[in-house]
Design brief:
The complex is a heterodimer. Chain A has helices spanning 5-25, 33-52, 57-79, 83-91, 97-110, 118-148. Chain A is mainly alpha-helical. Helices cover 65% and strands 8% of the residues of chain B. The chains are: A mainly alpha, B mainly alpha.
């Protein structure tokens, strides 16, 4: 398994930036925003490691949610933020919003009066929709498991 | 807020226990409502509501958390009081949610009266800090552009996407403050932000215009409500969970519609 260190750093950095930006949108205090960034960076780094190891997006997202949920739980007593809130903030960059949008584009294309290559459109749309569903379920399940333990 | 506790002269007067229970029900409902409106999952709302009502002296508590209303019954001995309240727009505010949960812990430790809790909740609602809108817009812009990088967008598109995401967030804030319908806001902001991102990305010579347009609208993806909805269903609150998921699906449809219009106007190929 060869992991591109630069790629890993890139994903961690931008995962952290995305999570901290959304942390501010979700009204985390300034003291907690760096923890959101750390949570997002951990999530994206774990998911990237998983995908580099050949796992599916869903399996990698599940592992990342578990990793972030455990880290948030361990840090809960030390930093005082709700562990679930911190874990959710970290997982937000993994929510497949772009896939969801592409899935809906596909649905619109299929319902056009004369769809081009409808069978190809159908399979792409189904793939995007299933990926959104499975990834969301993977993240939610990962978070629920760490919350319940 | 004390007006809530004034007995109606046209109905039979409640007993002292019922009067006390009424106060407990009102404060427990207000706390639950604040939690719902700040993006807490159903099990959190239930846990904190039970903790508050028990901490204030109720022996039995039943809460029905719906998407648009909350209903509570509190009882002590044979006395029983039922109250219902509306839930306002669902947002995400972790600071407020955290403060309410800290207060609930204090209540369960004992020593607070319903009137003190009511004034504390009112103070939290009014004075819990929020980031300035321009700070939020800037942060959201950077977050959208960072999402873009994660999706494989090229570097030249970073600034245009950050700018359009920030403009989109600013416009969303203004429209929601004016009371515009949430779904109309989403559709309009998606059209505006993706249109700006598409134009900007083309102007700077980006080769990933399509990804830039998609990245600029990721601020509209209801990530927290989607995860909350899933958690609600898994943890035994299917009605609330389903309502959240259906609302999120409508939001995603509106978002995709806005981008699709922008793509058609700009002639971006799918």
């Amino acid at each position: 398994m060869r992991i591109g260190l630069l790629h890993l750093l890139h994903q961690g950095l931008f995962g952290g930036l995305a999570a901290s930006g959304f942390g501010i949108l979700f009204n985390f205090g300034w003291r907690d925003v760096p923890w959101c960034a750390a949570s997002g960076a951990l999530a994206l780094a774990t998911r990237t490691l998983g995908q580099d190891a050949g796992w599916t997006l869903e399996a990698a997202s599940f592992s990342a949610a578990i990793a972030v949920g455990c880290a948030a739980k361990l840090l809960h007593a030390r930093i005082g933020i709700g562990s679930n809130a911190l874990a959710v903030a970290g997982c937000i960059p993994m929510v497949p919003g772009a896939f969801a949008a592409k899935g809906f584009f596909g649905l619109y294309a299929l319902t056009a009066p004369q769809p081009s290559r409808p069978s190809c459109q159908r399979s792409t749309t189904t793939e995007y929709t299933l990926r959104v569903l499975f990834t969301l379920v993977a993240i939610g399940t990962g978070l629920s498991i760490t919350k319940a333990t | 807020m004390d007006a809530l506790f004034v007995p109606d002269p046209y109905v039979p007067q409640p007993t002292l226990v019922e009067f006390e229970l009424d106060r407990v029900a009102v404060v427990a409902l207000l706390a639950s409502r604040l939690l719902m409106e700040s993006g807490a999952a159903a099990n959190v709302v239930h846990e904190e509501c039970y903790r508050i009502a028990h901490g204030l002296g109720a022996e039995r508590v039943d809460l029905d958390a719906g998407y648009v209303s909350l209903e509570i019954t509190v009882a002590r001995g044979v006395a029983r009081v039922t109250r219902i309240t509306e839930v306002g727009p669902h947002g995400v505010d972790y600071r407020l949610s955290h403060e309410v949960r800290v207060l609930a812990k204090r209540i369960s430790d004992g020593g607070l009266t319903p009137a003190e809790v009511m004034s504390e909740l009112t103070r939290l609602k009014q004075s819990t800090g929020r980031h300035a809108p321009w700070v939020v817009a800037l942060a959201v812009g950077i977050a959208c552009a960072s999402f873009g990088r994660l999706l494989g967008m090229d570097w030249p598109a970073y600034i245009p996407v950050a700018f359009s995401g920030a403009v989109g967030q600013w416009v969303r804030h203004l429209l929601l403050r004016r009371g515009t319908n949430l779904f109309v806001v989403i559709c309009f902001v998606a059209l505006l932000a993706s249109g700006l991102a598409g134009l900007g990305a083309r102007f700077v010579g980006s080769t990933t215009v399509d990804l830039a347009m998609l990245s600029s609208i990721l601020l509209l993806v209801p990530g927290v409500p989607l995860l909350d909805g899933q958690q609600d269903i898994v943890q035994g609150y299917p009605m609330l969970g389903t309502a959240r998921v259906v609302t999120c699906s409508m939001m995603l449809i509106c978002m995709a519609t806005g981008v699709l219009i922008a793509r058609t106007l700009l002639g971006v190929r799918q």
